[in-house]
Design a protein that fits this description.
Elements lengths: L5 E7 L6 H20 L6 E4 L8 E8 L9 H6 L4 E5 L13 H6 L2 H14 L5 E4 L5 H20 L3 E5 L13 H8 L2 E5 L1 H10 L2 H14 L1 E2 L5 H25 L4 E3 L23 H9 L3 E3 L4 H13 L7 E10 L6 E5 L14 E7 L6 E7 L5 E10 L4 E11 L11 E6 L3 H10 L5 E5 L4 H11 L2 E5 L5 H21 L1
Parallel strand pairs: 1-2, 1-3, 3-4, 4-5, 6-7, 6-9, 8-13, 9-10, 16-19
Antiparallel strand pairs: 11-12, 11-18, 12-17, 13-14, 15-16, 15-18, 16-17
Bound molecules: manganese (II) ion.
The site of manganese (II) ion has 5 residues, from loops.
Length: about 500
């Protein structure tokens, strides 16, 4: 996906210092862009060119080689719809002390040219990331890489169609919200899709097709037959395969890259009816496998988390440790290692597994159809991670992130679902308290690979509020941030 996108590099200069200076600026820019591309640190290709509009372009990098009077940028910045990164750097690293003269100074004026450009961006309230440092340094390139990944994620978000198979769960507030505003701000298009139409796909899946998929399961997963017995096991795995095929076909035909399910809306009527047609339980195995491939997923109709998970997956493509939809389930009080067990009824993404998942069939007594059903069971990696969510506060969307430390759980032989166990940072008490004060969800999009910098860039690009909870959080300051933000977002529209 990154290969489908480009970032455009725009260099500021002026003719005051003569045509030769402009030729040098052009040469330097080309060399720098080539150097950044060759560094291997930035996943999206940077292209040096002038400004215009292109679908492929997911963001703009600007750099002022010489002094560039910023009023010339006003009309361009008014038109700018793409994410902006302002790179404050210089072609050469050190001043050539023995040779430096006035010509050299005129040509290498980023020191004040970038400040002039920065002023006009601030004056015009242009959202952007400012990266300062030498362009050949890895830590500088890595900041650009973060922004490039997020820019690709934001571009993708504008093409996401999320299908809700069933609505969001009745009476649940946090999974609800304004889908029109969501599309305006973040780009995601969220549609209801009738479960009856999904059933039309389901009934057309042949046994042969399902059997072929079951063969694939056998290769990928450890087959573990427990209390359900062999007959029920294979019947349920077969049904899960059928559900997966049906879901895949709908998503493909509808051009959707995210979806939600609801355990109260599974199609069909009475399961004891001989003509019964419907899912025998929520299609958990399918959701797990589709998440792994990058489909956004939210349980119980949680379209916001489904969309956010999709973007997270896009942002962190190629990273080693994985991401998943997760839910805060059960607390474990243990002094300063108090933690929260993360899981779901079935739907945890195998990307975060430590080992080969086990394909198991067990009873699931939740929802409209309490039945035995298939799922992948595994434990998750340990180490630092970050969870994130978006909530609708009525007048704005708030993105919340929280850093967590994933720790080793004890064996849970009677809980046959995938899970993770984490200590919210800085402590359970402060971390969980801040999350609740911020109005966070019980569902989240979780990653071992990315950092707060990614979510900060995401919020900047989409213009939504961002609050972060981490090892430095204290409740008094956090509450003050939330209060300050109330005022800021009330006034924000008036400023633009
Ligand atoms: Mn849930």
């Amino acid at each position: 996906m990154f290969k489908d996108y480009e970032i455009w590099w725009v260099t500021g200069a002026q003719l005051l210092y003569g045509g030769d200076a402009v030729v040098a600026v052009d040469g330097h820019s080309k060399e720098m862009v080539e150097g950044l591309n060759k560094s291997g640190n930035i996943p999206v290709k940077i292209v040096y060119k002038g400004t215009n509009n292109d679908e492929k372009c997911v963001g703009i990098i600007t750099w002022m080689h010489t002094f560039s009077p910023a009023k010339m940028w006003i009309k361009g910045l008014q038109q700018l719809q793409k994410p902006l990164l302002h790179f404050h750097t210089q072609y050469n690293a050190e001043i050539p002390w023995g040779e430096i003269d006035m010509d050299f100074m005129n040509l290498n004026q980023s020191a004040h040219g970038d400040i002039e450009f920065g002023h006009i961006c601030t004056r015009m309230r242009v959202a952007r990331k400012v990266v300062c440092g030498y362009w050949k340094e890895e830590k500088v390139q890595k900041q650009i890489a973060v922004w490039a990944r997020v820019a690709a994620g934001v571009a993708d978000a504008h093409n996401v169609r999320c299908l809700m198979f069933g609505m969001n769960m009745n009476n649940v507030a946090v999974t609800d919200g304004d889908r029109v505003e969501f599309e305006q701000r973040l780009g995601y298009h969220v549609d209801y899709y009738p479960v009856s139409s999904l059933m039309d796909y389901f009934k057309k899946v042949t046994d042969k097709e399902a059997d072929e998929l079951v063969e694939e399961y056998k290769k990928l997963y450890t087959i573990k037959i427990d209390e359900s017995g062999e007959k029920v096991y294979w019947e349920k795995v077969h049904n899960a395969a059928k559900a997966e095929i049906a879901l895949r076909r709908v998503l493909k035909d509808e051009g959707a890259t995210a979806f939600t399910t609801n355990f109260d809306d599974l199609g069909g009527a009475d399961i004891d009816d001989p003509n019964f047609l419907g899912f025998d339980q929520i299609p958990g195995l399918a959701s797990q496998r589709l998440m792994q491939e990058g489909y956004g997923f939210g349980a119980e109709g949680d379209w916001k988390t489904a969309c956010l998970y999709r973007t997270l997956w896009v942002i962190q493509q190629g990273m080693p440790t994985g991401c998943s939809f997760l839910e805060d389930y059960t607390l474990n009080f243990a002094g300063d290692r108090s933690s929260c067990l993360q899981s779901h009824m079935l739907e945890v993404c195998p990307l975060i597994a430590t080992d080969k998942p086990k394909l198991e069939v067990h009873f699931l007594g939740i929802g409209i159809r309490k039945q035995q059903t298939a799922r992948l069971v595994f434990t998750s990696k340990v180490g630092p991670g970050i969870k994130a969510t978006v909530v609708d506060l009525g007048n704005r969307f708030r993105l919340i992130s929280q850093t967590v430390e994933c720790i080793e759980p004890k064996p849970m032989p009677n809980l046959p679902v995938a899970s993770a166990l984490w200590v919210p940072q800085p402590t359970f008490e402060i971390g969980a308290g801040a999350w609740i004060l911020a109005g966070g969800t019980h569902h989240s999009a979780f990653s071992y690979d990315i950092t707060e910098e990614y979510w900060e860039d995401f919020a900047e690009m989409t213009g939504i509020e961002y609050v972060k909870i981490n090892k430095d959080t204290n409740i008094a300051d956090f509450k003050q941030t939330l209060r300050n933000n109330e005022v800021y977002y009330m006034l924000n529209k008036a400023l633009k």
